[in-house]
Write a structure and sequence with these properties.
- The complex is a heterodimer of chains A (240) and B (322).
- Chain A has 240 residues and is mainly α.
- Chain A has eleven helices and no strands.
- Chain B folds into two domains: 217 residues, Rossmann fold (3-Layer(aba) Sandwich), CATH 3.40.50; 70 residues, Malonyl-CoA ACP transacylase, ACP-binding (Alpha-Beta Plaits, 2-Layer Sandwich).
- Chain B starts with a strand and ends in a 10-residue tail after the last helix.
- The chains are: A mainly alpha (240), B alpha/beta (322).
Chain lengths: 240, 322
C-alpha cells in the first residue's frame, strides 16, 4: 500500500520534470481553448458539455501517451527486474503506475478549470451542478482509460507498441456508440452498456448514477488485475 | 543457509537450468561460474524470486522462498546482470527511492546511505543524474542499491563488468569485506575474480552443475593439474631413454632444433620428477635452461571442464525460442 504511493509520487515527480509533459499540457490548452472560445463567441454558449466531449476524444490519445512507458519502459530498461525483486507486491507496482498517471491526468483536467472560471465570470445562469458532474465523469472515465493504458503497457517491452495497443483497446470502448445503429436490437443493450460514452453522457447531463460509477471502477479494476496477472505470468515466461 | 534442490527451468524447448542442487552456507562467498548462456543468470533470477522454476525448490532457512517472497526478498540484495538503473534520477534520489520501497526508517537510511556512499565511492556523483554517469559509477550505484538495506544475502551477477582495473580492485575489496558477514553469491565468467574472492566454486555448464567444491580442491578435477616445462640445450637430445625408465609419464615436444629443445612433461603418477630429470640431463652432458612446474590456473580448469561439452553439444539457436 505504502509502496504504491512511493511509486506514484516518484513517477509523477519525474513526469513533471520532463519538458514533454508541459508541451502536451500546452497543446491540450490550445486545442480545448480553440473549441471553447469558438462556442463561447459564436453562439454564446455558457456551458462546457461540448468541451467535455472533445476532452473525451483527447483522452483517447493523451492517456495512452502518458501510460505507454509506465511498465514497458521499465521492462525495456530492465528496471522491472529491480522493482519486482524488491519486497513489494506486484499489485503495488500496477496501482502505483495507475495513480501516477491519474495525478498527471488530473493536473491536465485541472488546467481546463480556466474555462470554467471564464464561464463563471462572464456567463449567466450557469448550471454548476452539471459542470461539476461532468468533471467527476471525466475523472472516472479517465481512470478507466489509464487502467487500460497501464495494462497495454504491461504486454510489450516496446513503448510505441504499448501506445498503439492502448489506443486500440480504448478505441473499441469509444467507437461502440457508433456501432449502435448497425447491430441487432437484442445486443444493443449490452453493447451500449460497454460504451464509455453512454456512461459519460449521463454525467455530462448532470446525473450521477451509481451504476455508471460502478462501471468505470469495474473497468479500472479488471484491467489493473489483468496487468498484474500479466506481470506475474511474464515473470514465469521471462526470456533468458 | 540457502539450499537448492533439483531446480529446473526451461524456455520452450531449451533447458536453461536442469535439475541443479547445491547449498550455500552463511558467511560464505560462493563463486558461480560458467560460460555465457550456461544458466547462471536464470539460476540467480530464480534465487531472487524473479523467475518461477518449472520444478525444484529453493529454501532459505528451511522455508521455500516462494511461500513468502516478500520476506525472502527483504533479506536479499541483488545486482542484476545488466545493472538496470533509473536514468532520470540522481544517485541520491535513486537510493532514497529504493530505501522507501524497502520500507527503511529515515535514520537507518541516512546511516546506511553514508556507509554505501563512502564504500562505493559515490560521493562526487551523489547529485548527478544516473543517465550521465560512466559505466564504473553506474556499476557502483547498482552495488550501492543492492547493499543499501544491509542484506543477509548478496547476489551479484557479474559485478565488476565494465570497470577499470583500479575500480575492480576496489569493488573486490568491498565484496571481500562484505563476505565476512554475509552470504555472497558471485556470478562471473572472469576466473581471476573468483580465484581472488571465493571460498567455494560452483561451475555450471549447459544448465548442469559440473563442479561444486572448495576452490583449493579444484585442481583435483583434472588428470594433469600440473606439468613440467623444460628447456634443454645440448646435442642430439632424446628423452626416450628417460621415458622407458619412468613408465607413466608423457612427453610433449613443444619445439626442437639441433641444439635446443623445449618439452612439456606430464606425469600421471604425481611424483616429483625434477631430481631424476636433472640427473639424467647432467649425465647426458646437456644443459638445463629452464625447468618449471606449471600449475594449471582456474581458468584452464574452467576451460577444460566446460570447453569439451561445447563441442559435442551445440549451442541452442536463439530463433527457436518462442
Amino acid at each position: 500500500m505504502k509502496a504504491m504511493f512511493i511509486i506514484a509520487i516518484k513517477e509523477f515527480q519525474l513526469a513533471m520534470r520532463s519538458v514533454s509533459t508541459y508541451i502536451v499540457f500546452t497543446l491540450f490548452l490550445v486545442i480545448s481553448g480553440l473549441i471553447f472560445s469558438n462556442l463561447l463567441f459564436k453562439i454564446a454558449l455558457a456551458e462546457l458539455r461540448f468541451l467535455f466531449e472533445v476532452i473525451h476524444v483527447i483522452f483517447l490519445f493523451y492517456i495512452p501517451a502518458i501510460t505507454m512507458g509506465s511498465i514497458a519502459k521499465e521492462r525495456q530498461n530492465g528496471t522491472l527486474e529491480l522493482l519486482s525483486t524488491l519486497p513489494i507486491k506486484l499489485s503495488s507496482i500496477v496501482w502505483g503506475k495507475i495513480l501516477a498517471a491519474m495525478l498527471q491526468l488530473k493536473t491536465m483536467i485541472a488546467l481546463s478549470l480556466v474555462f470554467f472560471g471564464i464561464i463563471i465570470v462572464f456567463g449567466e445562469g450557469i448550471d454548476y451542478g452539471t459542470i461539476i458532474c461532468g468533471y467527476i465523469g471525466l475523472v472516472l472515465a479517465g481512470m478507466a482509460y489509464v487502467s487500460i493504458g497501464v495494462f497495454a503497457s504491461s504486454i510489450p517491452s516496446n513503448q510505441i507498441l504499448a501506445f498503439v495497443l492502448a489506443l486500440l483497446i480504448s478505441g473499441v470502448f469509444y467507437v461502440l456508440k457508433f456501432l449502435m445503429p448497425m447491430v441487432p436490437y437484442s445486443v444493443v443493450g449490452p453493447i451500449q452498456y460497454l460504451s464509455f460514452d453512454f456512461h459519460l453522457t449521463s454525467f455530462l447531463k448532470g446525473v450521477i448514477d451509481s451504476r455508471d460509477i460502478l462501471f468505470f471502477i469495474a473497468v479500472t479494476v479488471v484491467f489493473a488485475l489483468l496487468a498484474e496477472f500479466n506481470l506475474q505470468s511474464r515473470n514465469m515466461m521471462q526470456e533468458r | 543457509m540457502i539450499s537448492i534442490k533439483k531446480l529446473s527451468r526451461s524456455f520452450g524447448e531449451i533447458k536453461a537450468v536442469d535439475e541443479i542442487s547445491f547449498n550455500i552456507a552463511d558467511k560464505e562467498i560462493m563463486g558461480f561460474l560458467g560460460p555465457n548462456g550456461a544458466g547462471k543468470t536464470t539460476t540467480l533470477r530464480m534465487l531472487v524470486g524473479y523467475l518461477q522454476p518449472n520444478s525444484g525448490t529453493i529454501e532459505l532457512d528451511g522455508e521455500s522462498i516462494f511461500d513468502d517472497p516478500i520476506k525472502a526478498s527483504s533479506q536479499i540484495g541483488y545486482l542484476p546482470e545488466q545493472n538496470p538503473l533509473y536514468d532520470d534520477m540522481s544517485v541520491a534520489e535513486a537510493l532514497a527511492y529504493i530505501a522507501a520501497l524497502r520500507g527503511m526508517k529515515h535514520d537507518i537510511f541516512v546511516q546506511r546511505r553514508n556507509f554505501v556512499v563512502q564504500n562505493c565511492g559515490l560521493k562526487e556523483v551523489l547529485h548527478q543524474r544516473i543517465g550521465t554517469l560512466s559505466k564504473g559509477y553506474r556499476q557502483r550505484t547498482g552495488l550501492a542499491q543492492a547493499i543499501l538495506h544491509d542484506p543477509r544475502i548478496l547476489i551479484l551477477d557479474e559485478p565488476t563488468s565494465g570497470l577499470d582495473p583500479n575500480q575492480i580492485m576496489e569493488i573486490r575489496e568491498l565484496i571481500r569485506t562484505l563476505g565476512r558477514e554475509k552470504m555472497v553469491i558471485l556470478s562471473s565468467h572472469i576466473m581471476q575474480e573468483v580465484q581472488a574472492l571465493c571460498d567455494r566454486v560452483v561451475i555450471i555448464n549447459k544448465g548442469k552443475i559440473i563442479v561444486d567444491d572448495r576452490k583449493d580442491n579444484l585442481p583435483n578435477y583434472l588428470k594433469n593439474s600440473s606439468y613440467l616445462n623444460l628447456e634443454v640445450q645440448g646435442e642430439a637430445i632424446d628423452f626416450s631413454e628417460f621415458i622407458l625408465q619412468h613408465p607413466g609419464i608423457e612427453m610433449d615436444i613443444v619445439s626442437q632444433n639441433e641444439t635446443n629443445c623445449i618439452v612439456n612433461i606430464y606425469d600421471t603418477t604425481e611424483l616429483d620428477l625434477r631430481q631424476e630429470l636433472a640427473k639424467f640431463i647432467s649425465q647426458k652432458g646437456w644443459l638445463i635452461l629452464e625447468l618449471a612446474v606449471i600449475k594449471k590456473s582456474l581458468e584452464s580448469i574452467f576451460h577444460e571442464l566446460t570447453g569439451e561439452n561445447t563441442e559435442t553439444n551445440e549451442l541452442p539457436v536463439l530463433e527457436e525460442q518462442p
